[in-house]
Specification:
NAD(P)-binding protein; 415 residues; 17 helices; 42% helix; Rossmann fold; 2 domains; globular; alpha/beta; 12% strand; two-stranded parallel ribbon; NAD(P)-bd_dom_sf; PRISE-like_Rossmann-fold; binds NADP nicotinamide-adenine-dinucleotide phosphate
Amino acid sequence: MIPHDVKPTSKVALILGGNGITGTYLIEHLLTLPESEWSRIIGVSRKPPSPDWLVHDLKLSPLDASQVTQGIGRLTWICADFLEESVEELIAKFKSGRVEGTTHVFFGAYVRIDGTGGPKEHVANTDMFERSIRASIGAAGKTVKRILLQIGAKWYGPHTRKTLPVPLRESLEPDVKGASFYIPQRDFLGSYAAECQQQGLTWDWVITAPYTVWGFTRASYQSLATTIALYATIQAHLGEPLHFPGNNNRWLGADDAICADLLAKFNVWCITTPQCGGELFNVSNGEVFSWEYMWQIFVRYFRCKPPVTSNRRLANPLYSLEKNLASHDGRYGKGSMVWKEIARKYDLDPRAEEYATWWFGDFSLGGSRLVLMSMAKARKFGWTGSVDCEEMVQNILAKMTRAKVIPSQRHIAKL
Ligand SMILES: NC(=O)c1ccc[n+]([C@@H]2O[C@H](COP(=O)([O-])OP(=O)(O)OC[C@H]3O[C@@H](n4cnc5c(N)ncnc54)[C@H](OP(=O)(O)O)[C@@H]3O)[C@@H](O)[C@H]2O)c1
């Protein structure tokens, strides 16, 4: 039941984009914190949360899981479409979803429409942010203390800027061409906070900028690790090398990542640390790796043939996952056909490949720039978290195995 004895000091989280890779890890993390600290957690997304996630990952009883969308329990859910519904409709829905008492609003919603960075994507994501924030404040404005907007490293234009400093520091101005909808989102947040202040509301904001988010969730496969793991399973089954979809600069240069679990902890730290108000922070694991090294972890785990190299350089750079594996124009691609066979043989989720973001793998690995995020500012503000990248990969693969999305080690040996 919804606790009626909510103490004035206990916090209520409203997570816009609760089904995403960011949102699910955030909810998983908040649920591990004491109820006396976070009394209610409210997810919002178009689709309801997956029953498998509620029961297997969050360990809710089937009865509790079935009541999440009915507004009963510590975790509750509102299904709403930030693009199809007006602010007034969203306010009404949020109110009936009992968002009253919300103290902290996390925004991690995202929609890809016409390819990364396209004009429709720009308009939709700007619109989605404005409507859902106006609705959150319209429904729970008096109690809201802080709003967190999550953007990404594209803020700095790693793919559009002529020269890119290493590492990327928050003092670098956003790149107008590359940052796309992040700039109007940031501008709206600042101006809306000032407008609300004049009406007596006192919330402030914080912005976090992760680089590539690594994790696994059933609801969103916008995760590089998930995409690579599905690709490696397919290549192992076919007996083909694990070609690297990037170029030699990426292969041999340094890279960094952010573990979705650490990102969740970072976002909670940012939204609750008083001195973080009104600031933008980069976030990464705090250590770097080369793809030449990281790729071997996947090669070994899936017992794949390594990519062909000569003097450490790739013989077949820029192998496109999208071209080689994706389905196009209603025609099933190689990835989909091979996946059906693998899923049947090893009793895996037959739909897993449908969600593989092949384009995202090409996009994330295809650039040639050295993108490294400075964590100096966050450390100065008191952040001490870090993650071992190799352990992060092992944990994600274990989670995917438990979810029956990739074969067990025993079955990989037979692929
Ligand atoms: N993933 C990464 O590697 C990465 C890296 C750096 C930065 N970022 C940034 O981080 C932010 C969050 O990204 P993410 O990867 O966590 O997102 P994601 O996994 O793609 O999840 C997006 C969420 O937005 C919701 N959503 C989409 N359209 C909606 C709509 N019309 N109405 C309501 N909800 C809607 C989805 O709900 P449904 O599932 O119900 O549709 C889902 O919960 C984005 O700005 C992204 O650019 C991501």
